[in-house]
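User: I'll paste a sequence; please echo it back and then give the predicted structure.

Assistant: Echoing your sequence first, then the prediction.
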Amino acid sequence: MDRAKTLNLLDAMIESDGVVVLFNDSHPEVPENSWHDPYKKVIERYSEDDIERQRLRSPEWLKNEAILLASPFHQMERISIIERRFTAVERFSDRALSLSITSRERLGATADDLSSEIRELMAKFAVEGVVTEVVESTALIARRNSPL
């Protein structure tokens, strides 16, 4: 989407004291997340030819904070929580296929190969079919100027 245009449309739709919130999650570098780098490498291998992925990783791609600073929603704060989760091996395959760059629609026949490879990889990190992961969930809250 055109993020700047979308924020201008939201400015017209959201009440004056309303906010825009962008959510993200990440995996901190802790021992429980030793599975994460190998997992990312599998995803990257299956998506290396994806033009959208290349665009989002290019140095010209502006981060959301830069777009928000140039929008009506330029006052920002970030909050996050870090928690330990216990995730079934199968969910990692579902997670990989839920990404736009590795969706079944994008990968076609190789989607089943990705799914199998992810399940095989994650089984190495599982105890009784469950992988422990530490997740940081972040909300970037963007507001307009506060009325005086």
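The chain has a mean pLDDT of 94. Helices lie at 3-13, 36-47, 51-56, 64-69, 89-98, 104-107, 111-123.
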